[in-house]
Amino acid sequence: MADKFHTEDWLERAKEAFAKANARRVIIRQQEHTVLSVPLSWAVIVGLVASVVAPPVPMVALVLLFVTHASLTIEDDPTAPAPPTHARVRDDAPVSDPRISPDDAPRF
Fold it and tell me: Which helix (H) or strand (E) holds 23?
């Protein structure tokens, strides 16, 4: 029996993933000076757009990061609101499947 595609579930998961990404920041530092600090979701979007529009740009940025002895870190943002901790459960979702052990169950 195949699972049905539920738009509401997909949207909930996308919102949850976006909230988790916004709870982290990409920080570029040179010694003790912060050069750039942006939410992780923005860094991913800009990186994807840059790699599609101008593929050499991300490579040049990475080389400059190493040449200037800068550091790139991903840290939790203490000022961001906490992401949701639970997902909505569908009414028609099976409670358990005896063929799947807890170790084999997918983790979300």
Answer: none
Nearest residue to 37 via CA among 7, 9, 72: 72
- With beta carbons less than 8 A apart as the criterion, state whether 72 and 27 touch: yes
Nearest alpha-carbon partner for 9 in 83, 85, 87: 87
Q: By C-alpha distance, which of 41, 42, 45 is closest to 18?
A: 41
pTM of the model as a whole: 0.55
Where in the chain are the domains? 22-76
Contact predicate 40/21, CB 8 Å: yes
pLDDT per residue as tens, the chain (108 positions): 455 666 777 788 888 888 887 788 888 898 888 888 888 888 888 888 988 988 888 888 889 888 988 888 888 877 766 655 555 545 555 555 555 555 655 555
38 to each of 11, 18, 55, how far by Cα in Å?
24, 14, 21
